[in-house]
Task: structure prediction
Amino acid sequence: MKALKRLYDKSKIWFALLWIAAYCILMSAGDALSALVGVEKSVTLAIGALLSAALLLFLKKYGLLSDFGLCAPRTSARSMLYYLPVLLMLTANLWYGVSLSRDATGAVLYILSMLLVGFLEEVIFRGLLFEAMRGDGERVAVIVSSLTFGIGHIINLVNGSGAELLPNLLQVVYATAAGFMFVLMYCKSRSLVVPIIAHGVFNALSVFASEAGISAEARILTALLLTVITGSYAVYLALSMIKGKGISSREKGDPHE
Result:
């Protein structure tokens, strides 16, 4: 812990990059080892739990929980459109029907590991990386955090998860849009609680997705719809924050307004 704290104090960006590397390498190794064991996500879940516990303990030990969004939202649900676009996004895995291709044990392991993925990816990409870059410009931090998160999903092609080319490339597209949405939700609410829950639940619901008979055209349409939903919500959040800053400036009597 002390070594991590020294790195954090010395360079927050290298601290974030360390966590990104550890997450990508260890979770990919977990998928590969799970395949060798013959029980999907069994090793992945254990690694995800250890990483989550280590990160959470570090942030709590040094009083950094609220600094990285692990606190209640500071804005009303109304100002966030009651998170309706997020709820719509969560239904995407069920658009083509519901089925369960795994047994009960496999489904539980998958769901739990996906919930941990939601926690880790939000805290690492929207918390550590974004906050490390924020001081050099919020716009750049938003873009880098989102693109890094989206492009990072291409690792599924080589990590032993069995992802196919087209679905994975489409995932990169809508994951990037979702990245913009989640980081702007964080910027507006100063909380990662809803993004963590939404991210984890979205991933977990894929265990119930009916993949049989879904054409390439349907996959493309789904990716486009997800991109539109999350991208439009991101634009709304950005505009509402710009408008809010404008109102604050006028209330202060800013001569440039």
